[in-house]
Every structure is written in structure tokens, then in C-alpha cells.
Amino acid sequence: MYQLIEEVPYEFRLVGEGAANCVFEVLGYPPDPTHSCLQGNLLRVAKAGKKSYGHDEIQAYWESVVRPLFRPDDLVRQQLVKLGGRRIVSRLNAVLENEESTRRVDFRGTRVAEAEYGMLVEDMRQRRPGDLTLEFKPKWLVQSPTAPPTATRCRNCAREVLKKCQRQPPPPSRQQQSTGNAEASQEEHEGETTILCPLNFIACATSADSLATLLAHLLPRCNPPRLGPIPRSVSAASAPASAAAASSSSLSLQHDRLSRWLQTNTLLPRLRAAQLTCSSSSSPSLLFSLPSPPASSSSCRPFPTALSPPSPGRETPHLHRPPSPPASSPSLLAAHAPPPGPPARPGDAGAFAGEAAESLALAMTLRDCTCFIRIPADPSQPVEAKLADLDRKRGDVKLSYWQKTERELIEGGFYFDQRAVEAGVAVDCWLGRLKTLLERGEDGAGGGGGGG
Ligand SMILES: Nc1ncnc2c1ncn2[C@@H]1O[C@H](COP(=O)(O)OP(=O)(O)OP(=O)(O)O)[C@@H](O)[C@H]1O
Ligand SMILES: [Mg+2]
Ligand SMILES: [Zn+2]
């Protein structure tokens, strides 16, 4: 294992940070083989004061649980690195202090933890100046197994509306949640911009509308960003380049390649399949096993119609009993078996609970990862798309937060249209349309591929 050495005059530059980690570029090391593994990699280190697992545990989990779910090229490569002493951490913190004014406001003041290990992660930034790069969180590509069976919003859209609701009007003295939940803080930050239904990542394979929605969301976030207006109703492949974008035919070609990748990639469907697999049948019982919190713990007012069916025959959500699995859309909504792992001993309730908890934690890991895409300026080079930030989640710390969120979504009626209308939020959720598209696809496959 590589170890950073205090005596080496590394030059550290801050590349990015999230709620739990800081990522640095490492320069200034001698060009000898000792340091060759720094080439093409970035240094990822944990922030202080977080309840996350250490990087040694995160790496062991990634190797044994996460990596087997994917193909080698699907994942950003990562390896442990020894930080080699307090002085290295002090130097990293000096960089953060220097960069304070350029950091995201809610991250300012956070520092690198004094830990034994960090991680070297494959650098997914531009290799050459003309490369197009993009990062996004695919989030929940499958409906929550505990959502009401007749929900009209996916879990992500439901949560976006909840957050809007929580923000308006802003509570007088709002404090950060003590869980320091990464999902909450990052999404709140992103919530200032457009809401994207993540089901578009699946729907875009067969829907031009969905593809246009995705491109409108992603192209301005590319590096370099698209300049000029974004066509809403045509795919980038057939869109005329704007005057500014036309200045670079290479950029236009890269946008076409991104569009094609979105339609044909197998990475996000594979992520979705993994999310489905570990949406364990035992997760619903786990999510619903705690007593309801006192009414005052919810920051949203109760939504009366959530408990009275909007359409005849809708099941009333019972928080101590998981909703029965939906009959109509198994591929979208069904709960699934736990992932492979140590079998529970017969009659061992603790082991069963542990397995359910592991399954839920893995599901949360798969819902919080980041996808990096790099489209080289050189059209003969392949598009690279890889998942990162597949960190083990502290289910023991976060379970009550996950339960509280799901309860708020269900009790508040956020899985249904009406709540979004009330909150004045325009949400273009693909839950219903994706179900139709997938059913059509399944029919097509069942019919022997006969037709149009
Ligand atoms: N392999 C990589 N290549 C290029 N940039 C990276 C890489 N890994 C991380 N980054 C940059 O650093 C930022 C933070 O990294 P990371 O996602 O690992 O932190 P985190 O604290 O786990 O984030 P989150 O709050 O989303 O969980 C990323 O958003 C990205 O901009
Ligand atoms: Mg993370
Ligand atoms: Zn949605």
C-alpha cells in the first residue's frame, strides 16, 4: 500500500468536496517509481466530525460487497493509501483554509480528519483540454419499496417536494440536522436549481421527450458547458448547434455522443438492477418497525388527504405494517430478496434484523453514488462512464433518519401529485410513464420481438 511521506514536498490542490470527504490533486512528487500510483489518481480523505466509517472499512466493503455487483469498467478505481502522519493532514487543512472563500458556504470551516487512511481514486477530470466531463447523482432509479402502491411520484420527486415544503416559509431558526446527512445537505444545495426526475435516466432509452429533458438538465452542467439555448423537444443528435456551440464542432460531436450514451448505456440499468435486488423484502419491515415519532417532529403540516384515498380502493398507509406489494408493476415497485451474504441462523431474530439492515444500507449506498462521464475530445477514444462514492453507509446512525424521512413522505402525501400542486412545485415525474414504457418493453420481449 502506498504511503504519503511527510518529507516529500507534495503540492496539494483542492479538487472538490462533499459532506463527508475532500478530494485533492497531488503534485510535486519526484518522478520515480515509488510515487507512480499517484499518477492519474486523486487523494480522497474524510472530513473531521462525521459519523462515517473509516476509509479502511469503506474500502473493504467496496471490495467485498459493491464491486461484485458491477463490471470492472463500471467503477472508478479506488485503493487505500496511508496518510503517514499528522503533518500531511495539517498540510491538507492548510489548503482548505487557504481556499475558504471559494468553498461552498455550508462546507466552510470543515477540516480533514486525523485518520490513518485515505483513498486514491481514479481521476475522472479532463485528461486533455478539450475533453467533456460531467458528474451527476443517478439517485433512486427504482421506486421506494415502502411507497404507497398507487403513488404517482417517485421517491426522489416526492422528497424534492417535501424539501420545497420545508423551505417555504423558512423556519425562523433552522439548524442543521444532527445526523449531518449527506443526502439532505447536498440535495438542499442542488434544490436551488431544476428538479430532475431520476427515472429519466431509464426512460430516455426509449423516449425522445425524456432524453430532451435529461439533456436540458445535464448539458449546462458539463465541463465545458453548453453555450446558448437548449432545445427542449429534439434530441441533441438532431438539434442544430447554437451559434456559440457551433464554434466547436468537436463539442457538438461530444454532445451527440453524450446523447447516444444516455440512450444506450448499460451502466445505469445495471445500477437500477442492483438497487432493485437489494431493495430487500425485509427492508419495508425495517423501515416501519419504529413507533411513529411525535407529531411535532415533522417539519411539515399533516396532509389530510394522504390518509383518505384519492381514488376508490386506495390502501391507507399503516406505519406499523408494510404496504402489501403492488400487483400491477412488479418490475418497478416490487420488494426483493436480500443480497448474498452470511445466512441468518434459523430462529436468530438478531441475524435477521442485521441482514435487513445491511440490505437497506447497501440500497442507500447505491442510491447515493456519483456517476462520472468523460467524453474525449478525440472522437476515436471511447466514452468513459463510471460510478464513484459507493461508500458504506452507517445504517446504525442513519436508520432513524431514513425512517423519519419515509414516514414524512407517506404521511404528508408527498408520493401524490396533489401535494406538489399545493406547494406550487412543478414536478415532471416519470413514474407512471416509465411503468408504461417498461410494460410495453416487456410485452415486446414476450411477443418474440415482432414488432413496431
Ligand atoms: N474520482 C474523481 N475524479 C474527479 N473528481 C472527483 C472524483 N471523486 C470526487 N471528485 C470531486 O470531489 C467531489 C466530492 O467527492 P465525493 O463525492 O467523494 O465526496 P463526498 O463527501 O462523499 O460527497 P457526498 O456529499 O455527495 O457524499 C465530487 O463531487 C467531485 O467534484
Ligand atoms: Mg459520499
Ligand atoms: Zn420522479
Automatic annotation (TrEMBL):
Family membership noted in the UniProt record: Belongs to the IPK1 type 1 family.
Catalytic reaction equation(s): 1D-myo-inositol 1,3,4,5,6-pentakisphosphate + ATP = 1D-myo-inositol hexakisphosphate + ADP + H(+)
Keywords attached to this entry: ATP-binding, Kinase, Nucleotide-binding, Transferase
Descriptive protein name: Inositol-pentakisphosphate 2-kinase
Region: Disordered, residue numbers: 164-190, 295-351
Entry function: Has kinase activity and phosphorylates inositol-1,3,4,5,6-pentakisphosphate (Ins(1,3,4,5,6)P5) to produce 1,2,3,4,5,6-hexakisphosphate (InsP6), also known as phytate.
Domain of life, per lineage: Eukaryota
Domain remark text: The EXKPK motif is conserved in inositol-pentakisphosphate 2-kinases of both family 1 and 2.
Entry EC number(s): 2.7.1.158
Pfam families xrefs: Ins_P5_2-kin (PF06090)
